[in-house]
Amino acid sequence: MILPIIAYGHTLLKKVATDFEQSDESLSQLIENMWETMYNAKGVGLAAPQVGISKRLFLVDTVQLEKEDEEGINQVFINPKIVQEDGELWAYEEGCLSIPRITGDVERQESVTLRYVDQDFRSHEKVFTGMNARVIQHEYDHLEGILFTDRLKPLKRRLIRRKLENIKSGKIEVDYKMKFKG
Ligand code: ZN
Asked: What spacing in Å lies between the alpha carbon of 29 and ligand 1's midpoint?
């Protein structure tokens, strides 16, 4: 089932999400719905708060990016915790399904060490780099109530202020289902 994606301006996107206690049928159903929602909106990542659930869960599919120099991942991350970030800061133009038609350069570190559980609640600790790290860092931010627009340079933020206001009030056309504030 395709879920509506929460748009910029909704307070849910600013909340710190909480851990899942256990894996159950409703979690599997949520994950299935989130994959469907993400692909329908042509995203490479989606976090639970973006579909109105303030829980620590996100999905990443960077296989779609077909990058020659690195292998993509197609993975579910439950109760993730960033253990460490390493490497140089590098800028890349990011976008977000909750903030349609706005992109901007965000600086992030090259690699991230993540601790998380999978769908069977087995724990893992893994290092991710490059685009995989970037998408993970972006989705992880959603669980902390941080949006990529919060990480833009002040000048750029000023330039997109009007556009953000329009999204907030639902004055935007998107080809996937969205839920706006109020
Ligand atoms: Zn996002």
From this structure: 21
pLDDT tens per residue across span 100-113: 999 999 999 999 99
Distance CA 17, CA 86 (A): 24
pTM: 0.97
Tokens of 8: 């910029």
110 has catalytic annotation: no
User: Under a CB-based contact definition with an 8 Å cutoff, are residues 111 and 129 in contact?
Assistant: yes
Q: Please, what are the domains in the chain?
A: 5-171 (3.90.45.10)
* Catalytic-role residue among 66, 107, 139, 165: 139
Confidence grade of residue 182 (pLDDT, cut at 50, 70, 90)? low
Dist. CA 95 → ligand 1 center (Å): 7
Phi/psi of residue 54, nearest 5 degrees = -85, 60
> How many Å lie between the centroid of ligand 1 and the Cα of residue 110?
18
Cα 139 to ligand 1 centroid, rounded to whole Å: 6
User: CB of 129 within 8 A of CB of 70?
Assistant: yes
Tokens of 125: 């600790």
Q: Are 21 and 39 in contact (CB under 8 A)?
A: no
